[in-house]
Model the fold of this input.
Amino acid sequence: MVRQKWKELDGTGFRVFEHYPPEVIQKLRVLVPKMKEARRLGKRAYLASDTLFMDGTPVRA
Done:
């Protein structure tokens, strides 16, 4: 519920961050550069938890 209302906290001094286990953080460190490169090449790329989606196809670390 808190994550859904994070925009209401804008300007209040409070922030909402997701806490991931170390395994997921390690995967994100590998996937984020891949995502940035894909976006630079004009592909649609986004992260959902520990999975990178490029043009609708899941890519895991």
Observations:
- The beta strands are 45-48, 51-54, 57-60.
- The chain has a mean pLDDT of 88.
- Helices lie at 22-40.
